Amino acid sequence: MTIHPPERIWWKPISGAERVYISAALLFSLVTFFLMPVWHFLGAQNPTMQTYRVDKAEYLQKVMAWADKYKVGEQAGVPVVEPPPGADVYLLARTFQWYPVLKLKAGQTYRVHVSSSDLVHGLSFQPLNMNFMVLPGYEYILYVTPTQKGEFGIVCNEFCGLGHHLMVGKLIVE
Ligand SMILES: [Cu+2]
Question: Would you state the pLDDT for residue 1?
């Protein structure tokens, strides 16, 4: 049994400044929370969600044939491919390489197909903040409109084996 009963209000009531701070933080978190679905529609940053089932070997052959058709050069044994502006573009991820080197025109929109012929890889254009998972057996479609000229690295961001760190491709925008 206690000798003195505890005070009814034992805590310090919040002060005016604290009340303002908590209300502002709450309001801000609610605004950002409701902006998430809004941004989904207005942000223009979502993948197309266009995917197709594809056979791994079939995709490999498709990329090879396409690369042969539009080949304009070679870099370290990998063909440099320049498709006509606005055309379909094929990119293949495989251990441990991105195939081929892409040469695109700035301001043109390309339909970029991406798939893997072996394991799961991750597609990331550097230094942009874009990440896509590349799954064997699925062909992803991304609409890409390069706006900046220059050379961009294509790296694999999904650990895929001992040579993962060597898996660097290239995108040239002219
Ligand atoms: Cu990889």
Answer: 62
Is the CB of residue 99 less than 8 Å from the CB of residue 39?
no
Question: What is the domain range of residue 149?
Answer: 50-173
Ligand 1 mean position to 86 CA, how many Å? 27
Sign of CA dihedral 87, 85, 92, 69: positive
Distance CA 40, CA 19 (A): 32
CA distance to 31, 70, 73, 143, 160, per residue, from 140 (Å):
33, 21, 26, 10, 19
Residue of 85, 164, 90, 169 lying closest to 124 (CA atoms): 169
Contacts of residue 7, Cβ cutoff 8 Å, sequence gap at least 6: none
163 Cα–ligand 1 center, Å: 8
pLDDT band at 17 (very low <50, low <70, confident <90, very high): very high
Cα 156 to ligand 1 centre (Å): 5
**pLDDT of 109 strictly over 90:** yes
**Which uninterrupted H or E stretch holds 88?**
strand 88-94
CATH number at residue 81: 2.60.40.420
* CB atoms closer than 10 angstroms to residue 37: 9
Domain assignment present for 71:
yes
Tokens matching residue 51: 């995917």
Q: Tokens 């491919």 identify what position?
A: 81
pTM of the prediction?
Answer: 0.74
